[in-house]
Design brief:
The protein is of the alpha+beta class. It has five helices and eleven strands; from the N terminus they run H-H-E-E-E-E-E-H-E-E-E-E-H-E-H-E.
């Protein structure tokens, strides 16, 4: 009789523990993982299919400096394999690594390119927490900057300069730049951090950077015979991005204002990611998601 009561008691305790465990497992983690996997697919698609890049800048001495980059990419992608996922519970940031084996690809220009025995690796990041988004946004900005630099390197940029003086005083100085190009075939070297090296990250000042490489032999139809390269014909650029908008604060002060699931079968490891969020979000800071989510 005592053994029966003890068994019933243990069963109740175990049921309560399981209920508490399931209750604490919400959809925030699942959605962050889903976002990271989707970001992985996007990054692979953009690397394969390519970008249409357009940038405009003004840097004259008598005008407020501005720089804008717009990109567009679209393509159908299938066969992406998610190799590994890491989830930082404290920061609510998911990171997924994966790859795709390439065959015949239609690029951003509509041309078909045949890849043989080529495997492209990529990484994706995601979070449902607002406080953890700034460094991820900075990394995305760095990638766009890198693609713009690659476009400028390949096809050049148009410079418009206008200046005027009166009585030896500079009254107008306009320095404008424009670039527009299609870039495809570029990739981030050494995507994986498994070997302790990667072509992206954040420096000591939390400025994001992305290294981009391109073998111009694979895009000679884009270059024609206008540009000549030596050696292995590898072009490398580095883009930068930040989440600290010092310019807006400076302009406010000058104006007198207040400067104020992984795929089925993929294992998910919980670990602390070296991403400079600046603070550790809690559940209250996370986005209020309604409904449920399922890992695919």
């Amino acid at each position: 009789m005592k053994n029966s009561k003890l068994l019933i008691g243990l069963t109740i305790v175990l049921s309560l523990l399981l209920t508490a465990s399931f209750a604490s497992a919400g959809n925030k983690k699942l959605m962050s993982l889903k976002m990271a996997k989707q970001d992985l697919k996007r990054n692979l698609m953009e690397s394969i299919v390519g970008y249409k890049v357009k940038s405009e800048g003004q840097f004259g001495l008598t005008e407020d400096a501005q720089f804008k980059v717009d990109t567009k990419a679209a393509g159908v992608i299938k066969g992406v394999i998610v190799d590994d996922c890491i989830y930082d519970k404290g920061k609510d940031i998911a990171m997924c690594y994966g790859h795709i084996d390439l065959g015949t690809v239609q690029n951003i220009l509509g041309d078909y390119i045949e890849y043989k025995n080529v495997t492209l690796q990529g990484v994706g990041l995601g979070t449902m927490t607002k406080a953890s988004r700034p460094p991820l946004q900075a990394l995305r900005a760095a990638l766009l900057d890198a693609y713009n630099q690659m476009a400028v390197t390949l096809v050049g940029e148009k410079i418009l300069s206008q200046s005027s003086t009166e009585n030896y005083i500079l009254t107008k100085d306009s320095n404008r730049s424009k670039a527009c190009a299609a870039v495809y075939g570029a990739h981030i070297p050494q995507e994986s951090v498994k070997f302790g090296r990667k072509g992206w990250g954040w420096d000591s000042e939390d400025t994001a950077y992305v290294v981009l490489q391109m073998d111009v032999n694979k895009v000679r139809d884009l270059l024609g015979n206008e540009l000549l390269y030596k050696g292995e014909n590898i072009i490398e650029v580095m883009g930068q991005g930040t989440f600290n908008d010092d310019l807006s604060e400076l302009r406010d002060q000058e104006d007198g204002a207040d400067g104020s699931g992984p795929r089925k079968g993929t294992k998910v490891r919980e670990a602390t990611l070296n991403i400079p969020t600046g603070s550790t979000p809690n559940d209250d800071e996370a986005m209020n998601l309604k409904g449920g989510a399922q890992a695919q």
